[in-house]
Amino acid sequence: MASKQFPFLAFFAIVLPSVAMATEFTVGDDSGWTINFDYNAWAKDKVFGVGDNLVFKYPAGQHTVFKVNGTAFANCTVPPPNEGLTSGNDVITLSTPGRKWYICGVSDHCASHGQKLVITVLDESASPSPAPYTPKPSTPGFANEVEESHAPAPSSSIPSTPGGSANEVAAPSTPAAPAPSSAYNGISVSGYQLLVAAMVAVAYLFV
């Protein structure tokens, strides 16, 4: 039973989305398909796509709908009567992309009263898409602040010397004062003692 229902489910899964996406345009809106109406202005702000429907509403017998080419549209050349639509509620499905031209074939409705319509049908792949995201420009000065925050600070350390730490500072050497020589001091003391002794001896001789 399930196998018999599968083809029907697949059919609806394919057809229903396309039907739901189609747009129906009533030509002329409330005015319908009539004379002395600006159909260029009516179609100007509308987007027609493949699969959409045009509905021409008018009192049957008063107007007709003919699909023509660009030349026949410009000259209001009416095709043979058997090519026209006359029901008063004519639905035309836009099955292909490109320019489409329609005119009324009754009397001079097209040439003298402007009862004609031209539209451009877009392909499905040409339907409007979201604009690409554009990042906002950075605030002046902000980028510089970021760069400065990541810039390495100037090094305050003094280059290391061989055999020492990088943080050690080599102080200039000061020559040390020579230590007093013990021999020199000894000679000076003994000479002084001899001099005193000699003076004492001389003074003793004169006494």
Keywords:
207 residues, four-stranded mixed sheet, three-stranded mixed sheet, 15% strand
Structure description:
- This protein is 34% helix and 15% strand.
- The strands form two sheets. Strands 2-7-6-4 form a four-stranded mixed sheet.
- About 26% of the residues have low confidence.
- The chain is built from six helices and seven strands.
- With 207 residues, it is α/β, with parallel strands linked by helices.
**Oligomer kind:** single chain
Strand content: 5-15%
Radius of gyration: 56 Å
Low-confidence stretches: 6-20, 141-151, 156-171, 179-189
Shape: rod-shaped
Order of helices and strands: HEHEEEHEEHEHH
The helix/strand class is alpha/beta
Distance between the termini: 163 Å
Tell me the helix content.
Answer: 25-40%
Number of strands: 7
Average pLDDT over all residues: 74
Largest sheet: 4 strands, mixed
Q: Which strand order do you get reading across the main beta sheet?
A: 2-7-6-4
Number of helices: 6
